[in-house]
Amino acid sequence: GENVEQHPSTLSVQEGDSAVIKCTYSDSASNYFPWYKQELGKRPQLIIDIRSNVGEKKDQRIAVTLNKTAKHFSLHITETQPEDSAVYFCAAYDMRFGAGTRLTVKP
Amino acid sequence: DAGVIQSPRHEVTEMGQEVTLRCKPISGHDYLFWYRQTMMRGLELLIYFNNNVPIDDSGMPEDRFSAKMPNASFSTLKIQPSEPRDSAVYFCASSLVASGNTIYFGEGSWLTVV
Q1: Do A43 and B102 touch (CB under 8 A)?
Q2: Percent of chain B whose predicted confidence (pLDDT) is above 70
Q3: Which residue of A has its CA nearest to B92?
Q4: pLDDT band for position A28 (50/70/90)?
Q5: Is A95 helix (H, G, I), strand (E, B) or coil?
Q6: Helix (H, G, I), strand (E, B) or coil at A78
Q7: Percent of chain A having pLDDT more than 70?
Q8: Angle at B97 (CA atoms; ends A33, A88), nearest 5 degrees
């Protein structure tokens, strides 16, 4: 089956700094790459996604980039705020998720 | 729409007992997923259905786990007999398309097996 590797597993940044989380996948048939945010005790919720015909997508402070040749995609959060603290998951083909990244934004 | 509805929200059961988790997907969605979340293993895909038919159950841990979807608006995940290592949060999710459309999660069923 599809493997999705996500790095880093934990990430701590100062408020206002940027955060980058990377995922790699193995199945070249993958064409949809979502990112989910899960706050403590809550369900995962979609924050941004990208399809294979696009290299980058932005939504305010959040952006996702995709490199299909290298089979990796990244989540970029700029001007981080304490409320960005959560676990972030990427997913690829067949909606299998990466292991998650626990982001902590220190005020 | 009320979203994906799961029940029970919390369950504590004794080892050896049967556990049944229930899910009502979003109306009109044709894919339904069951995930298990633990600290050690993250968010694991257990099984998913398309139009009520199981497509991939390779994530089901062992024969003690079974899942059914008798109709488009209901699915169950059953564990029999339950073991302490089954303690986890079990999420049900649904979408219109497996790959290429947003997956919406239920609030999860928090299972503790003692």
Answers
A1: no
A2: 96
A3: A43
A4: confident
A5: helix
A6: coil
A7: 98
A8: 35
Closest residue of A to B90, CA-based? A43
- Put simply, the chain A residues between 71 and 90 with a CB less than 8 A from any chain B CB are 89
- Chain A positions in Cβ-Cβ contact with residue B107 (cut-off 8 Å): 42-43
Positive or negative, the Cα torsion across B107, A38, A25, A74? positive
Average predicted confidence (pLDDT) for chain A: 93
Calculate what percentage of chain A has a pLDDT beyond 90.
79
The C-alpha atoms of residue B78 and residue A71 are separated, in whole angstroms, by 36
Question: Is A26 within 8 Å of chain B by CB?
Answer: no
Nearest to B102 among A1, A46, A99 (CB): A46
Nearest to B43 among A34, A46, A97 (CB): A97
Question: What are the two backbone dihedrals, phi and then psi, of residue A100, each rounded to the nearest 5 degrees?
Answer: 95, 150
DSSP letters along chain B, please?
----EEE-SEEEE-TT--EEEEEEPPTT--EEEEEEEETTTEEEEEEEEETTEEEE-TT--STTEEEEEEETTEEEEEESS--GGG-EEEEEEEESSTTTS--EE---EEEEE-
Nearest to B45 among A43, A45, A96 (CB): A96
* Cβ neighbours of B95 in A, within 8 Å: 95
